[in-house]
Amino acid sequence: MPPVLFILASAVFAQGTSEFVLSGLLPQIAADTGVSLGTAGLLTSLFAAGMVVGAPLLAMLGSKLPRKLALLSFLGLFCAAHVIGALTTDFPLLLVTRALAAFANAGFLAVSLAALGSLVPAEAVGRATSVLLSGVTLACIVGVPAGTVLGQYAGWQAAFWAIAAITALAAAALATASFDDPPATTPVYREWRVLTRPSTAITVVKGILVNGGTFAAFTYLGTMAAATPAWVPVVLAVFGVGSFVGVTVAGKADPRILKAGTVVLTAVWVAAFFAAQSLPGLLAAALVAGAMAFGVGSALIAAIVTAASAEAPRVAGAIATTAFNLGAVVGPAVAGAVVFDAAHARAAFWVSAAFTAVAMVLKAKK
Length: 366
Hints:
mainly alpha
């Protein structure tokens, strides 16, 4: 793997930490900005929505620039948003900074994914995708717990400063790296026609469904362990470890993971519902489900990039990024409709199983 890929992954690590760390810092932010906890939660939902909207828009805007310049611009905007966020206690302004950070994150990930085809041979795109997405899983394992502890002891602004610092370091490293920028051959808007191809469209929908199932369950893992509060971060960290293993193995596996992955993952979500009745069972379920969900999910993201990159080299990453983040928005929303209270948090696993079962049927029809 080229060194620049690991620089990109380090930036994705900072971005993944930013996306998820606020869940542990919302009470402090609410107190400092003078809003309710529920209102402070808009900071997380707005970020996810901004990722969905930002990916296609910024991929098109970024396509007008050399890829390296586009990536550095996105990192600069992301870093600046966190600096401004750390310096304000005005909640509306903080919301604006989160929206800008989400747009920058979406643009960076979209361009990075689209660039993989020019960074590595075609047969290595799957492995390169897993390396890039390992930044997100490492954020769950290391970045989010560390950011939460830092925020608890030094104030939530300290977490923002740390994310800005990591982003600045990644930008400095990227500025010194060589980066291929193949010339455009067609207007960028025409590339969206790749979605009219049934095979590509089905892969995208499957990506949305699988990632929707993943985030439906992940959103309520902490609630499932809430009876023993000290184990909440452990359960989330175990899920993160599983996800890291999943993306690593998926990058090395053969394409058959896409043929059997949704079938096995559906069974895993059903088994997790029954296993999670006890703490040891929940820990085991978090590990296995994290590995399978992110393994299949990252394989699908790689498949989307591979399927679209030939006809849509500049928007392939945006399509994959949008699929991933639509799942992150839709999955928790549907799960929230069936999880009535903490006692019924395990019902989220049935939502996850339903999502992947639909993906399995779509694959069968393909």
